[in-house]
Design goal:
This protein is mainly beta. It folds into 2 domains: 1-13 and 29-59 and 126-188, no CATH class; 63-113, no CATH class. The chain has no helices and 9 strands. The chain has strands spanning 3-7, 53-61, 103-104, 107-108, 115-123, 146-150, 157-158, 172-178, 181-187. It has a 3-stranded antiparallel beta sheet with strand order 1-6-7, with no helix packed on it. Strands 2-5 form a two-stranded antiparallel sheet. It is globular, with a radius of gyration of 16 Å. The termini are close together. Residues 1-32 have low confidence and may be disordered.
Length: 188
């Protein structure tokens, strides 16, 4: 299943650098070493009951600032950097122009992709937000910060990793791919 996306996380800071990504300092209680598969993997990892950890896509990068990655015009220019992709407006989604005119969810266009996504126990947007598979309009509606829009049309729904249908507020637990992550998540 190919999905369009509208993510609330990560954010872009005022100076243009992208936040909510990277590796936390030693001693941080997040993320789990092996990631997560469902919200149940994240129970007890938050000190704030109003913002429990949820199994959500987490942006990681090897660079402190993705603006500093190598410049490129084609994928071959990135041959020494995995995953060998040159960000362009065609392969770097920018829902609602949230990242400005020359960037997207994977970082700046015209730069080698130095960003990957993995499921991690990330801070939620709040315990009162919608859970895995729930119908949503905006990413800020969802605890994970990710409201997915089916490519073929249909109702949008909150991303949520799952192990079984019981992990889904709505829909069923199905394998799929989102932001390059192959995992099971709640889908209509």
């Amino acid at each position: 299943m190919v999905l369009a996306l509208d993510t609330a996380l990560p954010t872009v800071l005022l100076d243009g650098t992208q936040g909510v990504m990277g590796h936390p300092s030693p001693g941080a209680c997040w993320p789990l070493e092996d990631g997560c598969r469902a919200d149940s993997d994240c129970v007890g990892l938050s000190a704030d009951a109003n913002a429990p950890r949820v199994c959500a896509p987490y942006k990681t990068t090897a660079w402190a600032n993705t603006d500093n990655t190598s410049s490129c015009s084609v994928d071959a220019d990135c041959a020494t950097i995995a995953p060998y992709t040159c960000n362009t407006s065609a392969n770097n989604p920018n829902p609602g122009s949230a990242y400005g005119g020359s960037a997207g969810i994977y970082g700046p266009n015209g730069k080698c992709r130095g960003v990957t996504w993995a499921l991690e126990c990330a801070p939620s947007l709040g315990a009162a937000k919608l859970g895995p598979g729930a119908a949503c309009t905006y990413s800020t509606d969802c605890a994970t910060g990710h409201c997915l829009v089916p490519a073929g049309g249909g109702a949008s729904y909150c991303f949520g990793g799952c192990l079984s249908d019981a992990d889904c507020v709505s829909g069923t637990c199905q394998p799929g791919s989102y932001l390059g992550i192959s995992a099971s998540f709640c889908q209509p």
